[in-house]
Amino acid sequence: MKIVxxxxxxxxxxxxxxxxxxxxxxxxxxxxxxxxCVGTVNYDLVVNDTPVNYTLSHRxxxxxxxxxYDSIKGQFSVDGKSYNVGRTITFEHHRIxxxxxxxxxxxSTHKSSSDNLPxxxxxxxxxxxxxxxxxxxxxxxxxxxHILISDTSGPSFLCRHG
Length: 162
Known about the structure:
19% helix, 52% strand, alpha+beta, eight-stranded antiparallel barrel, 8 strands, Lipocalin
């Protein structure tokens, strides 16, 4: 009788653990749908003795749980030459189970008529905007209005939504 009770108790605990893990790992994005998250990235660095700096404002909107767009505007300077940046990228993303990380993939890029940043410079210095391969973002909600977005190959910044 003790063995049967022990087996039933173990099975119930195991089922409760599975339910808890499922409930705790639901696909919930820190970026709420259709509410823009706005942030600015400022970078000033030297790459191979070449000064590079840029200030880019991002307006990120998730349209569904797995897709969205990022409107980017700002200035980019390399080796004393300045360029305007004005583009919208559409992206897809999904959460990696049991983490705050998301796999992010640029689907398309639309450059405005004022965007005069050459593609070669964008591909070299703004790799997080390239369509070549997926990126991994770490999204952390700081409070009800701020989200910290980190990327291993690009800037980390706070965006404010609402």
